[in-house]
Fold L-lysine 2,3-aminomutase.
Amino acid sequence: MIPAAPLALQPSPPPTLQPPRWQQQWRDALRDPRALLALLGLDAQAAGISDAAAAQFPLRVPQAFVARMRRGDLHDPLLRQVLPLDDEMRLVPGFGLDAVGDGAAKIADGVIQKYRGRTLLIATGSCAVHCRYCFRRHFPYAEETAARDGWRDAVAAIAADPGIDEVLLSGGDPLSLATGKLAELTDALAAIGHVKRLRIHSRLPIVLPERVDAPLLAWLRSLPWPVAFVVHANHANEFDGAVDAAMRALRKAGAQLLNQAVLLRGVNDSVDALAALSERSFAAGVLPYYLHQLDRVAGVAHFEVDDASARALHTELAARLSGYLVPRLVREIPGDTGKRPL
């Protein structure tokens, strides 16, 4: 009997480096308003979508967020936050390009200082979702991001002012950046003795919870300061099991979770909606923090709730909920020393 020849061993193919799952979901985001409406079983003509508005500020929404929208409901509160409408093209007096005075408060490229002791970094212009009410929808991100020179100017501006003890990461959305890029910044900030706190403002854990991955959590655990993590949810329906899991992971990594919502007509301008948001966010481990009146940037007037109605809603909310569930009703006014309570 002739023995069988041994099988020749084939070399293993080199391992393929797969991008993080959240980055793939980022790339798969919907960008076509008509495709979004078709996915939800809605008629584009009846929706009043605007190609001009979409050209000015393109639609972008992760499919994970779309999955939480109600099919067949043109008034779904999540859909209303992302769908470009004809209303955006109306010119309304009092609504301008820089509603909150970012330009006047610039101290370096992508570095804004409005309030004592705090400095805000425009980390990037990228976002996972384009919210139609965004107060920075006209911001000149091409010239004004703190990360573009390796954070040098931003870190130098912070180091030069010993009165700065809190650094805020904003954007765009800072978690749009790779975790390694964020670590470059915090490694540099760690050498500045007067920095005592880090605050992160991000909507990604809400709209794309897969962003809260192992590298991000390891980075958070490595930071030498307390971290306040401000998520941005406007409606209770934005929470689901995946978001809850992301919130648990962030808390376990040591972050204090706060929610900052915007009062939006047709989205959350009822006491029932606001109460549900507070209760649902708290159930996920997120403390209600601010309820913002709309920043009056061009293209968002159709979302505005007048101050009298806002105060009435807030009063009714305070009568319904425990005090720790009632966010502060505030407005940002350029030149003020802090957010102004209404």
In short: The longest helix spans residues 307-320.
